[in-house]
Amino acid sequence: MKSILCLLIAAGFGALLQFEGVPHGLLLGSILVTALAATKFSFSPRTPYGLGYIQVTLGIATGLMFEAWDSATVSTMLPSLGLLLLCLTVQVALSAWWLARGAGWNRTDALLAVYPGALAAVFDLLESHQASSKVIIVHLMRLLLITVLVSLLIPGQAAVAVAEVDPLSTGMALTVFSLIVSSIVVGRLLLAIGVPAPFMLTAIILTAVFLKSGWLHGFHMPDWSLNLAALILGVRIGSRFQGLGLAELGRHGRTALVSVGLMILVAAGFAEVAARLLGSDALSLWLAYMPGAIETIAIVAFGGGLNVVFILTHHLVRMVVLHFAPALLVQVRRAREEV
């Protein structure tokens, strides 16, 4: 009951901010309300299937945009992905170096703090008892700063999200239902082997397949589904403030801001260079090179009318590389030792 009440208050305040013209007010308002409840009353609403819902919803909405995929986007994608990997290396190295040298952290904490993984992986880290409070604060600050920064800098366009949607026919409803179930089932299999953001990945791919097969012709994601995803995401971010005192936030907050700020500035620098070299939109590139928070980036990109497919493709590649690179390095090291 308390969780439902908190969700309703967060939705009401977020809707008020949205009505008053605050960019992405629903997302920011739900973060603020939940953060206050978590710090003042030590309570955070439960959303056990929230992250899965967010990923499936945004994955389907992204997959539907593959209908507009063209050769120009494909030709721009490959060199930009190469710059993404270089940007990621510089981001992690520079931020970890500053934490180790400038803030005096040990190398393990510094590397854990700058890991720009998927939102689910970050939440797992935040809930882990092995993560120190300062590492948790850096990740929390990264989620919060990226969310607030991109939400305020990129104006929402209600016309993009709101569309006239005809009532679903029985056949279309069954098709969408089968798409959702397939995304969940395949996503669970990928989750079992440790694939990051599995439900979003499967939803994007399966939606694109359904779309190219002609099974989703004329289907659009309803506005309420994206708004609900924004609300749940804001609640999940705000609830992470529970258990963190003001003293801890003050002690490590400045260090976290500098660390995250360096990564965001590196992303901006690479985006500017890539925009000049590739002739692409610098804003879309900046969002594509952001260090994490794919779900937040997706919601903001949808609301801002940006090239969501281009942006999310970069984030999915980043997450796959981050997830599988350590495992590959271990295997290579073991092979060398055996030789």
TrEMBL record:
What InterPro entries does the record point to? AbrB_dup, AbrB_fam
Q: Which UniProt keywords apply?
A: Membrane, Monooxygenase, Oxidoreductase, Transmembrane, Transmembrane helix
List GO molecular-function terms, semicolon-separated. monooxygenase activity
Residue ranges the record marks as coiled coil? none
Q: Which residues cross the membrane?
A: 51-69, 81-100, 140-160, 172-191, 198-218, 224-243, 255-274, 286-312
Q: Which residues belong to the signal peptide in this entry?
A: none
Q: Organism's domain of life? A: Bacteria
Its protein name is: Ammonia monooxygenase
Organism name: Pseudomonas kribbensis
